[in-house]
Amino acid sequence: MTPTRFRPDNLADRVLYRDGLVLVVDKPAGIPVHGGPGGGPHLEHWFPLLRFGLTNPPSLAHRLDRDTSGCLVLGRHPKALRRLGRLFADGQVEKTYWAVVVGTPTEPAGRIENHLLKHSRGTGWRMIVDPAGQAAVTEYRVLGTAGGQSWLELRPRTGRTHQIRVHCAGLGCPVVGDPVYGDPNLPGPMLLHARAISLPLYPAKPPIAVIAPVPEHMRDNLTRLGYLDPERDLAGMVA
Fold it and tell me: Quick one: which of 54, 58, 94, 225 has the fewest CB in 10 Å?
């Protein structure tokens, strides 16, 4: 199943959480969050649809890859962005990803620690494991296996570019559909989803906890791997 075609006019319907400082949007797969050198549509172009009464549109507090779906955090004004920036920089934001990967890790749970460096090659680039790079840490556990694939829950403890994709490939289990770190000859969308995020934004209140529903293009794969909770996902969940 391919990702559902994104309709800009329904972007407001994809808001999972909103208050005076922050929005959490369910980003669709297949569209970049901001413009690149190649041009083309990007999510940020339609942020004016998310003003909700404020003068200026919100801005990105972090990034997700073009083909990754799920929880994307936006700050609604500069003060909010500064506060969110500190939380992300200090590692206080808890992020949970779900991925369908090729194969099964040797261990059912573990921690991946290495250093990642951006490496240019020809007209493109990729992240490689290199001691000269930045420290990258991801914790994972296997939630299900079937038919030569696995369903992984991944919790990045750092926020490096392509971190989860590189770490899954390093386990010998690249994300299904990953054209850079997996098999570029295998068809289909990349099956990586920013499932949940927890933001300790207000000192006197519990963290804002948001869950993004499983996208349609991943649901069949996850169901085959043991996913059994579609009803809650139809609307997402906020605590």
Answer: 54
